Recover the amino acids of this structure.
């Protein structure tokens, strides 16, 4: 999921990711991103800008996503505001703008691979529980 309030930057970034064979879901701000996530849209990676006025910024969005959808990998970008202590949740990465296309694709690919590996591990554990006759709860949503 790409969250960027500047339409041209969002368009260019989405094109870079699409050319690298990623499926891209776009949101213009944190509110749109949260709405999509609450609708159970499957997301491996959140790539978000920091400054997205008005409302929730990228750091706050990252914290909310980490708390509610912990398997989602988080990448935060900015050309003006670098993270301070506590801005990024555990495991999140920061990319300074402008970021070379190859670097962006590399970070997103690594994050997507980690998210998919986590999902595969959870799925395998759930299958084992089913095979052993254990009740498997539905994942908590929202």
């Amino acid at each position: 999921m790409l969250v960027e309030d500047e339409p041209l930057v969002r368009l260019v970034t989405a094109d870079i990711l699409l050319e690298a064979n990623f499926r891209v879901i776009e949101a213009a701000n944190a509110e749109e991103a949260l709405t999509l996530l609450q609708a159970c849209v499957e997301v491996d990676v959140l790539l978000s800008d920091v400054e997205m006025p008005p409302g929730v910024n990228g750091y706050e969005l990252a914290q909310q996503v980490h708390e509610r959808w912990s398997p989602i990998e988080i990448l935060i970008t900015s050309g003006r505001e670098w993270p301070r202590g506590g801005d990024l949740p555990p495991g999140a990465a920061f990319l300074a703008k402008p970021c070379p296309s190859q670097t962006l694709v590399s970070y997103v690919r690594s994050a997507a691979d980690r998210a998919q590996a986590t999902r595969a591990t959870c799925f395998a554990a759930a299958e084992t529980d089913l095979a052993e006759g254990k009740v498997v709860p539905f994942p908590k949503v929202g």
In short: The radius of gyration is 16 Å.
